[in-house]
Each structure stands twice: as structure tokens, then as C-alpha cells.
Design goal:
It is a single chain. The chain has 506 residues and is α+β, with helices and mostly antiparallel strands. Helix content is 54%, strand content 15%. The chain is rod-shaped. Bound molecules: adenosine-5'-diphosphate (ADP). Adenosine-5'-diphosphate binds next to helix 11 and helix 12.
Amino acid sequence: MRRTLGTLRWRLTLTYIALLALLLAGLGTYEYIALQRNLVDVRVDVLTGNVNEMRAQVERLLPRASRTPAGVNALFASLCARLNGNGLPNAADPTAPERTVAAALAAAAGTSAGVVVYNRLLQPIASQPETLSSAAHMSDGALRTVLRGAAAHSAPEVLDSQSGNQLAVAYPLRSGTRPPCGVVQLSTPTDSIDAVLSAERTRYAIGGGSVLVLALFIGLFLTSRALRPLRRVGETAQQLAAGDLRARSNLPRRADEVGSLAHSFDDMADRIESAFAAQAESETRMRRFIADASHELRTPITALKGYIDVMRRGAARDPQALDAALETMGREADRMRVLVLDLLTLARLDAQRAMELAPVDLNELVGEVLDDAGEGLPAQMRREVNGTPVLVIADRNAVQTIARNLLGNALKYAPEAAQTWSTAIEDGFGVLRVHDDGPGIPAADLPHIFERFYRGEKTRAREEGGSGLGLSIVKGLAVAQGGDVTVRSSEGFGTTFTVRLPLAAR
Ligand code: ADP
């Protein structure tokens, strides 16, 4: 239960219901007070009307002979004389003026009304109904205000009397235009006002309660709908956390906050998936590389170990056999050295070590590499390298390694075949082309020759074949310098490698 109420859906709905309840309560209270005031005002107006009729009522109660305005004046004069003289109740005198006034007002206000007449000391001296002791009295303050003549009537007060709650108002009693000589309190039961107010309260409680229940259901429905995408994102996050990297929320792209959250979430999941895939691939590549490298190193080490065993068994004492063994051991050691150097170059490329880039003239560098090769070059050797420098931004040693590897391959796989070395400037790149008229690379090998440890089908068995790292180093170095390498080859046509490096001044 607590978990249910703690969900965002319930929290939002309950907050909104609480606000609505507060609003309804505020509005209800305001309306209730206004209605109450209205009902009281109407009742006070009726009472005031009754008081205004007082003289006419009094006249009707006078003996026939004095039933004139003058008779009424005389009655009020005698009433004021009594009140000013602080006259006390005189139950024995049924014609006492205060009793006439009380009776007149009671007749005007109806049977349920109550009347109390007070003297100047605010002592009740007559009442209607006549049991004076049981009559409820207004506060002294209200009575005094009226007695001072400060107001046409007092503010209404609710009195708790034996016959239930009464709404009471005090009015001044005066003879002619003189200041008030006493006070008359007129009261009427609040039953009908209470009934209206009680009905109003019930109506409001039922109406407000229904509105809140309805709002609760609508609120739950609407928040549930609005939060559905959020739930979907949450479920997807759980799937991802459980290892399902292909999980996506796949929500339609919408402009609202939840829509853009879902979209960003899916983007993030895409990136996580590809990062994991890249890491897995890199680990596989690394494992294969280590396995291949160990395999390549094992061959010369085994050979060296074999020769050492042979020498131990006596070959060392035969000078001829010793020479041959040392010669082969030297070759194997060289092979190992080259292999280790190649592996080191590749490791540096993988670590993305910064290269020492500087302007290098391709023509000059090609000249140096070919001149170094000296005698080893084939008879048919063309150098289409003119005098204009082809200045590229490159690492001198790296470009030398590239040229040497290409030359080495041409000599290995196209021995004696004609070679053409040319340089050019094309599309903002300095270009080195190495072509040989050799046997060409079979189509099946072509897509793989730049892969590490890849050796062509035909060359794999051959003694002079290398470790399969040469071209991957060429490619790695070219790319690391902002260039690339491509190959065109077919059996019969020969092979052309094209290396492009960024020009020094584009
Ligand atoms: P390796 O160290 O074995 O020479 P490379 O990466 O340099 O490895 O070359 C990969 C393969 O590409 C070689 O085994 C060979 O089959 C092929 N190859 C490279 N250069 C040439 C060439 N000029 N002519 C024919 N085949 C070549």
C-alpha cells in the first residue's frame, strides 16, 4: 500500500487532489459565510421593519379614546419618564407603557419573536413572552451603543435561549426627537437560517466529495497515461542493466520532455551497444594478434633450439657443420629481429603515438631508399621521379619504412620483374606509385593483403615469404600520417601500390 502511494503517479494525483480540496474548501467557506451574512441581513431588515411599525402597533393597542398619534406620543413620553427614572418591572400594572410597547412589537414580529425592554441602567423591565427571568440578553456593549444613540440598531447577535438559538438586534427607544431613554431588544429564532445553512453544508459536502472522487479517478487515469513512456524507459533500463544491450524504448519521437528523454535514452543505449561491440572486437583482434605473433616467433625459436641441440650432440666439433649451423641460426635470429621490430611498430601505431611530422620531399626519399638497395634492384628499373620536389607533411622514418616494405615485397614476389617508381601531386596529395610487372595478386587475396599476418595463398608455403605484417604496417603508417594506401593488381598485369600523403602546402 505504502509502495503504491509512493509512486510518482499517486504522488502527482494526490498533490493535485489536495490542491483541489483546498480550493473547494476555500471557495465553500467563502460562499457559506456570504450566504449566512445574507440570510442574517434579510432577517435584520425584517426586524427593523417591525420596529419601524412600532408606533402604529402601539396606537392599535391603546384604549379607543387615546388611539391617536398624540396618544402614542403620550405613551412614549410616559415610557421615557419611567425608563429615565430607572423604573423597575411592574408586573402588577398591565397598562405599564413598557408592556404595551413589548406587546406591540411582539404582535408585529409574530408569535415566535421575543422582546425585551431595558431601562437606562440596561436592566430588563418588561419582556414578551412575559417570563422576564428566562429571556436571553444581548451583550452590554451592544445595548450601550444603541443607548448612546450611536447607531440606528446594534449589530445582530446570536443568543442561546431556552427555546433554541435566537437572532437578536437592539433598537433605541426615544420620546420624540430626544436622545434614547431605553433600549428594546428584538429576537427571532434562527431555525430557518440554520436549516438553510445545514442544507447548504450537506450539499457542499456531497458535491465537493463527488468532485474529489471524480478528480481522483481522472487524475489517476491522466497521470498513468502521461507516465506510460517513463515506465517504458524504466523497463528498458532494467533490460539493459540485465545485459540485453539491444533493448530500446522505441517510443515515437515527441517534442515533450518525456519524448525527448526516451529519445536520448535510446541514443545512449545505441552508443553503449556500439561501445561494447567495439570493445569486444578490439579484444578479439588483440587475442588473435597475440596468438599470431606467438606463432610467428615460435618458428625461429624452435629452429634455433634445434640447431643448438644438434651442436651439443657433436656438430660443433665439425667446423663445416658448425659454419652451416651458425649461418642458419644467424638468419633465424635476423628473421626474429625483423618480426619483433614489426610488432613494435604495430604496437606503437595501436597506441597512437604522435608522429614527428615535418616537410619531406618524396622524390629525395625514394631516391635514398632505391640507392640503398643498390645491387638488389632488378635490371629493368624505371624511376619516373623528376626534379621538382613533392613536399609532403610526414614522418621521415615512417615514409622510409613504407618505401622499403613496398620495395621488399616487389623484390620478393616479383623477382627480376620490371619495376616503375613514380611520384606525383594529385588532389592535394603527394603520391608515390610502385608498380611491378610481376605475377600480380590473386583476386581472392586482394581484399585481405592489408590485414595483419595475412599471407597470400601462393606465398604462404614459400621460404622467402614474410610474416604477413609488411603491408599492414604500410597501411597503418600511411593512415597515421593523414594519408592512405591502395592497390591495383591482377594476374598478368602486375601490381601497383599507390601511397598518398598530405602535401606540405595545400
Ligand atoms: P609479407 O610480410 O608476407 O610480405 P605483406 O603484408 O607485405 O606480407 O604482404 C601480404 C601478401 O600480399 C603477401 O603474402 C603476398 O601474397 C602479397 N603481395 C604483397 N606484395 C606483392 C607484390 N608486389 N606482388 C604480388 N603479391 C604481393
